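User: For my dataset I need records formatted as: sequence, then structure tokens, nothing else. Please produce one.
Assistant:
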Amino acid sequence: MKAYGLTSRCTGSDALCFVASALASQGLVTTNQVFARWFQDRVEAHRFVVEPIALNELDRWRFDQATGRIAHETGKFFVVDGVRIEQRSPERLSWDQPILHQAEIGILGFVVKRFDGVLHFLVQAKMEPGNLHYVQVSPTVQATRSNFTRVHQGRAPDYLEYFLDMRLSRVMVDCLQSEQGSRFWRKLNRNIVVEAQEDVPLRDDYCWLTLGQLNHLLRQDNVVNMDARTVLSCLPLAAPELEGWFIEDYPKCIEAQCGIDRGLLRVPDNLFEAACLMSLVCPANAEAYAHTLRWLSRQRFGADQSVTSIAPREMRNWTVRSDAIAHDEGRFFRVIGVRVDAANREIGTWCQPIVQPASEGLMACFTRQTSGQVEVLLQSKPEPGNADTIELGPSVQCFRRDHREADLPSFTHDADNPDFGIWHVNTLQSEEGGRFYREANRNRIIEVGGDWLVEPPDSYRWVPLNQLRPMAVHSRILNVEARCLLASLGAGTLAEGARSRYPCPK
């Protein structure tokens, strides 16, 4: 096997280095075949048991029978509480629901390293109790503050020092991002990518992958977890060095700018992936970007919603029982308890509350191509846990059992119709497995013709793809559902094949 050289040489913009990694479809450290064997070995290496239990049986958690609130005995981790929402605009609604208060900022972070100049991401095969199939590809570090400060009295997460001691690494991406505003109260995580300055010891549950390899895994069901997807959505890809180049010549440009052997790089072999990549690498028009942000400001200004904290036992249409907190009609979700055995986690056995959905979700983005750009249909999505009430969500974001057929969100039937548009992505992805129990969302990216929905409703907007990456590096603009779909846009198998001769617009 060839010994690929470690180098921290920083040539070309960070965006160009990320694009180069995206075009490396075969890892220089871990080949695709080696990864498949390694991942299966990690799945089989440990015994995992997740057992549903009653809420009043949760060890080290206090289930207040009088109020229905659930909290850890240390006051850390998170609290299960209730809220009452009064929404007067954009439509008049009132409801109660449980919500998770997690008043701490966690770390979702990748360590990256260059091998023969190509950035590789240090990924973890991580078990979470709510994941479908338990083990999924996760960031290098995925930990709440309570975890990494060792409130559980277990060991600290591996590689944590690269995110706390900046003498060991160089920050490439660093932003605060929200999580599910329908379930969490103003929860934020630090999405961060750091480049290690020295050699990095490799532990059993970790391996190095290029962004191209991760992009390939994103096209598979339940392999790359939600936490990895949200960090990948924040990577800057607008590389000024590529402006004016034809896409098939990207490897030549990258070789000249970064010193990477162009033979390691492959460009997309279908028109949609090529169009997405070219849209992503072109810097956003500043005036158009500002116009989109002004539209978002108007949407937020027009939203009128109040959220009041109440005890779970005060919630209308919900019942607090010893085994679960559940909606009276079996809709939305339940809060249940689980006992977990996982030998490779920082602590091997623990109990916790967890949210179990009533149905599979549907998260879909419609795209179109206009004037050489890929555009995405986004909606201004109000959710009770959002600090600014509204964040930008995908074209369709719903759980079917949350709605009656006549009240399904706009465009749901279109997103479910295989004869409508071209389905470029259709995967089933687990949500955050540390808080949600076997919650899965159908993720779809659907290309439509330019004559469909030319004038969308006021709460929807066509947004050029190259505006979304800049939005993703700012806190509280794109919600987590939109970011996870953004990670998949243009993320196909990058291999040799037919080329379309379209230059990146200047």
